[in-house]
Amino acid sequence: MAKGSSISGFPEWLPSERVVEQRVIDTLRTIFELNGFIGIETRAVEQGSSLLKKGETSKEIYLLSRLQDVGNENDTPVEERLGLHFDLTVPLSRYVVEHSGDLAFPFKRWQIQKVWRGERPQEGRFREFVQADIDVIGNGELPDHYEVELPLVMVQALEELRQYGLPKATVHANNRKLSEGFYRGLGLTDIEGVLREIDKLDKIGGEEVARLLEETCGATADQANACLELANLTADNGADLTDKFNALCEIHHIAFDSDAYLLAREGLDTLAMIVDEAARLRPGSVIADLKIARGLDYYTGSVYETFLEGADSLGSICSGGRYDNLASQGSKKYPGVGLSIGLSRLVSYMLHTAGAVASRVSPAAVMVAVWDENMRPACNRIAQALRGRGIAADVAPTAAKLGKQIKYASKLGIPYVWFPADATEDGSDSDEVKNIVTGEQVAADVQSWEPDTLYAQQTVTIQ
Amino acid sequence: MAKGSSISGFPEWLPSERVVEQRVIDTLRTIFELNGFIGIETRAVEQGSSLLKKGETSKEIYLLSRLQDVGNENDTPVEERLGLHFDLTVPLSRYVVEHSGDLAFPFKRWQIQKVWRGERPQEGRFREFVQADIDVIGNGELPDHYEVELPLVMVQALEELRQYGLPKATVHANNRKLSEGFYRGLGLTDIEGVLREIDKLDKIGGEEVARLLEETCGATADQANACLELANLTADNGADLTDKFNALCEIHHIAFDSDAYLLAREGLDTLAMIVDEAARLRPGSVIADLKIARGLDYYTGSVYETFLEGADSLGSICSGGRYDNLASQGSKKYPGVGLSIGLSRLVSYMLHTAGAVASRVSPAAVMVAVWDENMRPACNRIAQALRGRGIAADVAPTAAKLGKQIKYASKLGIPYVWFPADATEDGSDSDEVKNIVTGEQVAADVQSWEPDTLYAQQTVTIQ
């Protein structure tokens, strides 16, 4: 991120870095829209009551107060104050309920916006960052085929980013029902507690998780061990997944006709469907990985995390799941499934690890040189003619020495400098244009000249 | 804006309305980049000290507090708290100073982002809205040709929006030095006060402004009258402007060799240059209008407001000016000139008055029908093939009756429904595609079929 950014946790890109972020956003939007997702933007603020809704989140929140109310903030209960959204899923749920009469269901939407987390500054984590989300929300019910289609759209989007240096992404899927059924089958009851501890596996390791399961979730050593065995289970096809899971149930005496197994089986069948259908559509893109837990989030079925090859330390760059209880109105429910890319972190990785660079800072392909300030109107007309033909053009800021003008173009990465007829060094009576990268200079007509394909557009490449 | 938006002042668009907003944003970005402006995004928050800097603004501000700090907010002085930015100019000034070593000057940037104003809710004004800004910032100095080029870029952008129903826009320009010189020539000293009252002219009328000038700025009836005469002066060319202004000075005994006149003359010459050069490049786009004051803002020279033909009640939709003292570092100054479009208000006008409508809600051109859930993998492959050829495609959510599937496509505005071979009603062995707007149905090959140009893309038209 930009050097010297003055508030910790609030990243800000330099212009050349912003080119990469903008390219990532444009790419994601293109893929989302190709797949029929509808773009929306929600307001940045929600009611405190909505942000604090029990069981939905453990996120830290920024509350707002008007400058005029400073000193009297506490006259208003937190629930009635406004706060900045910490994700795009809670706002979506509210939006869908609020506008249900105006939407067609299932409602497939994409949304790329900033979110804020009121973390302590010293933790060095982003407190403002961009998320890129896709979700589909049903009215009353939601077919489970979306639970495989949505991660595949994200895989397609991440594949598209590989040209800018992103490594191959693999979605790791699990299902809350599968985990819950298995834990209940073992005789455990603090399901949320177990999920919370299992979620720490990558960070603190199996031994420590086992200790925590015993200490905080009332597990015996055997139960804790069984939880770890489940977490270690992975499979890339449904049959293998089912065999391995059933074997684990047999070892731990979970009967196939128990309520616990039947609950697990529901999740198992969905997960098996997901990996099999994903293998058909995009082989190697999705695996079953039973350690995926998603902490204390609002998910009720499928859960996903996405990892980049060779970038384990980055953690999951695209996470989500199915949530059946987040949005409701009276007895009507709006179940949803969605995934969210942590875009700022991804861009940071692309810039600083994958070596993505903008071909130039300025969108302009041409800078028109100005020999004399009296010529500026003529120079403006040349630039205007180029722009009219879709060629982005700038005009030199001052009629400085030509070398200084070329240096300005060069600093902005503008590849062509245009010399109006009476400004060419040899006094030529035709306009000329010089590619300052290759040094090539040719006579040019403003009505027909085209930049070489290689230099026409701002692009992003890998260093 | 979306019906029933639940927090007053925080507009939120329905999906079909968002299509129009997105189109406006895309159009502005295209024009800004064609003109060589560099896109940046700044963080949404600034230090309180930066937002409250004396003399910069009278804007209302939202301050942030972490949920964990609720009750202890007042332990931190406002200057050290974080607040949401109320415009994009103050953040730009801070960004430029912070990153000056990494930027090429003059730095031309575009920025389209949300801003927040902590207004009282009952006023019914937007408290969150999108601004679209262009500015150019110099390092130490900034040539005045930018003072005509920047408003012209905005005119070009607004011209481009006329295809979506926007009326013709005219920039009204003035110059602070011209006004100040004239007021001083009259013997007035409370220049800020006079500008503040003159700024109210359109809202409260000349009589009331004259009364306020006498009451609050110590003006005599004659002085107040002279201020109104100046405010009534308009001109569409430099010679006419100069003649009219000089005549007014003679009437009010402002000597052409006085310091006051020389100050006014500086502004007059810049303003004359602006209207003349604008007339050459885009006739009829910019006039001199000496009532433009821009209230208590940070401008030091040129000021601009932009009005739409037949939409006077909307007020200025694009305002700005030159500011020489906003950004500085030690003795080094970064003078700038820029304009800002109040995008949310503009989109609101386009939707509700100009009749701009999205051709469809969904970006998809095609929905693949699903005859039977077992066929879904085949349907997904059809959609994938179309997407691979750049045709946005959706797949029916369920294998419901065909009528229900077509109704879903129709509600989303998706023009084509694709019938996979064994799903066509007549049992045809070739795929068929139906345009559900025209009723036309033809055999189609997923590798070669193209939608009619009219139906290929989501567009915005005027109702």
TrEMBL record, chains A, B:
E.C. number: 6.1.1.21
CDD domains: HisRS-like_core
Biological process, per Gene Ontology: histidyl-tRNA aminoacylation
Listed GO CC annotations: cytoplasm
Family: Belongs to the class-II aminoacyl-tRNA synthetase family.
Domain Aminoacyl-transfer RNA synthetases class-II family profile: 20-363
Entry protein name: Histidine--tRNA ligase
Membrane-spanning residues: none
Keyword annotations: Aminoacyl-tRNA synthetase, ATP-binding, Cytoplasm, Ligase, Nucleotide-binding, Protein biosynthesis
Recorded coiled-coil stretches: none
Catalytic activity: tRNA(His) + L-histidine + ATP = L-histidyl-tRNA(His) + AMP + diphosphate + H(+)
Subunit structure: Homodimer.
One MF term in the entry's GO annotations: ATP binding
Key word GTP-binding present: no
Highest taxon above the source species: Bacteria
Any Pfam family hit: tRNA-synt_His
